[in-house]
Description:
- The complex is a heterodimer.
- By secondary structure, chain A is mainly alpha-helical.
- Chain A is 77% helix and 0% strand.
- Chain A is rod-shaped.
- By secondary structure, chain B is mainly α.
- Helices cover 73% and strands 0% of the residues of chain B.
- In chain B, helix 1 (4-12) crosses helix 2, helix 2 crosses helix 4 (68-87) and helix 4 crosses helix 8 (143-150).
- At the A-B interface, helix 1 and helix 2 of A face helix 2, helix 3, helix 6, helix 7 and helix 9 of B.
Amino acid sequence: MNVDELLKRSLREHMIRISDPQFTKTIIDGGLEKDAITKPVPFTGFASLIVGMILMITSSSILLLFFYKKLPTELAGFNPDTGVILVALAATFLLYTLLTEVSIKRSRAR
Amino acid sequence: MINDDQLIKEAIAGNREALNNLVELYKDISFNIALSIVRDREDAKDIVQESFIRILKNIERFRNRSAFSTWLYRIVYNESLRHLEKLKRRLMLDVKEYKSVYGLDDDDQMHDTRYTAVLEQIEKLTDKERHLIMFFYLGEKSIKEIQEITGMTSSNIKVTLHRIRKKLSENLNVPL
């Protein structure tokens, strides 16, 4: 017997086997659990409404600034400084609410 | 006998029996590979379980570019190295310790003196050499597949395997 055969036989024939009957079952149960653990939580319901509002505020503000050099709040009668603060506050509030909503959904999914 | 491709197809389709067969087919070799790296039975079992779970969760991404076992062993190898990195330990084992790590009884395999001698020689190899031995002789992987698993170059693998063969041939007194 040469060294190749000796190594192959030694390792193969004396390979340690896992005899725990639960071993394979644990793997398969864990592998099939994937949806509950890793499925991303889509923006649904309230979260999608907030995303929509943020996009609307941001895009309308950008368009108005670009074409009219005015913010939507200015058009509604607020002075420019107050307008910027109001838009920023609204966007921050909406973003905060959105992140809270998403993190709740994710923790529920886990 | 159903081949890997067929098993994988059925596993992707959610066939629990196919998943079961895939795990049964490769769990022991994966376990021995992990054990040769992390040197702890419980840790090796955990690594194999985690690796399989990762594979099963991503099985639909398997593209048949390499053998299923190559994909699995690469994950087991990387997980084992990551685990070692965490523990920062490297044990040099003598035969007595080897028996306890590998869970062998005095009554069984250790009575095979030739096998004991082979194990002793394998223990004297460097980590890299021991990993190569496991992939090449136990996992029956080709040089190209070992390259995919370990990231080593093919010439490095060939040279290392030749060196191991030469060393073991001399120490075990068997022909090359």
